[in-house]
Write a structure and sequence with these properties.
Distance between the termini: 127 Å
Low-confidence stretches: 1-38, 47-77
Number of strands: 0
Number of helices: 6
Order of helices and strands: HHHHHH
Mean pLDDT: 78
Strand content: under 5%
Largest sheet: none
């Protein structure tokens, strides 16, 4: 009898525990009831666009003056001081190019001159010459120099490459004529001096070597696989496409 009473007491306690566990917690919908939709989240307020930078002052996010990426973002800097410096710098750069004879073999020298002028402005603006007007003036000076530089370099690269292509074509035709006469690829016996490291020279060699190979491949392909073929035209081996303006 005692065991039976104990057993009934245990069942009663388990029933109370189960009932308490099944009650919904505070803030929870009753079992089977629809769950209310969450309150809508308000949209974030729009971020106002930054005010435009004054003339001659780099806008927000622009690269520091003279740093890599400078000028990549549009900057309103076309005020009076910008135009004064821009016109003066264009005149200086053009005069420098005129005084070295507009000689494309001296393009590298001209690039060095203009690069030094850009460095002068970058180093002095903000240190030796300060303020918004100085910033505006520096931008104009650099842009004036770079406009002439870009134009000169593009023109000379095209000119030097064109002349190299002419040399490559004419040399290739001579190579094929000699090969036909002697029955094998000729040797370039007079080694030329090849001067490396110049803008015009690189464009000249590229045009000459590519056109030499293209022309001989079409005109006398049977002689383009012999050992003397490469040394005949390659500038690196002092062949006919060597560049030496002196």
């Amino acid at each position: 009898m005692k065991n039976k009473i104990t057993f009934l007491s245990v069942l009663l306690m388990l029933g109370l525990f189960t009932s308490a566990s099944a009650q919904p917690s505070s803030g929870t919908a009753p079992y089977g009831a629809p769950v209310p939709a969450p309150a809508p989240v308000p949209a974030p307020a729009p971020v106002p666009a930054p005010a435009p930078a004054p003339h001659g002052v780099p806008g927000p996010g622009a690269a520091p003056y003279g740093a890599p990426g400078y000028g990549a973002l549009p900057v309103k800097r076309y005020g009076a001081f910008y135009r004064i410096a821009y016109n003066a710098a264009k005149g200086l750069a053009q005069s420098a190019w005129d005084n070295i004879g507009q000689d494309c073999t001296k393009t590298s020298l001209f690039v060095q001159m203009v690069g030094d002028g850009v460095d002068d402005a970058v180093n002095d603006i903000g240190t030796k010459y300060r303020g918004r007007s100085a910033e505006q003036f520096g931008h104009g000076f650099i842009d004036g120099l770079m406009e002439v530089l870009d134009r000169v370099v593009d023109s000379c690269v095209n000119e030097c490459q064109m002349l190299g292509q002419a040399s490559g074509e004419w040399s290739a035709k001579m190579f094929c004529r000699v090969a036909w006469a002697i029955g094998h690829a000729p040797t370039f016996t007079v080694k030329l001096v090849n001067i490396r490291g110049s803008i015009c020279g690189g464009a000249y060699r590229l045009g000459c070597e590519s056109n030499f190979v293209g022309t001989t491949t079409k005109m006398c392909p049977n002689y383009t696989h012999e050992p003397s073929f490469n040394s005949f035209y390659r500038a690196a081996e002092n062949g006919c496409c060597s560049y030496n303006p002196y």
